Amino acid sequence: MTVEENKALIRRLYDDVVNTGNIDVLADLVAAEYVGHAPDVAEGFGGTRRGIAALAGDVVAMRKMLSDLRVTLEDLVGSGDRVGVRGVTRGTHSGAVAGMPPTGNAVTMTWSAIYRVADGRIVESWRNADDLSSFQQLGIIPRQ
Question: What is the model's pTM?
Answer without folding.
Answer: 0.90
